[in-house]
Write a structure and sequence with these properties.
Strand content: 5-15%
Largest sheet: 2 strands, antiparallel
Radius of gyration: 24 Å
Oligomer: single chain
Distance between the termini: 43 Å
Amino acid sequence: MRAGEQMRVLAVLATLALSGCGDGSASYEVGDSNETTFISEERRPFDEDAAREAAEEELASEGYDYSYGCTDDCSGHESGWQWRADNGYASDGNSESFAEGGYAFDEALDSRVEEMRDDYEAGQDPDF
């Protein structure tokens, strides 16, 4: 290893060591003068509100997911799902199937946000 490379490695290690003395965030550059990469250890927290909003939009366009099943034509479940998507809350409406459609939306929403959080915690960048 050349002397210049050794100095860069030492600088990176010193930065990492000293980052424990500060606010927990650190940034540094690595590489030679022709190719420098900026590395930051600071990551924004998961934005649940943005994830929920994105998930609501996705679910509204997907339609009822049949998680509660149907007896005939699913129109009650589909209407309850759409009501929830349009109004932001589930309603009992005038039938059990309508209510189940809204509940299905809420359950799918919670599940989708949890998937987004799991992906974020696994290191994936959010697409919302």
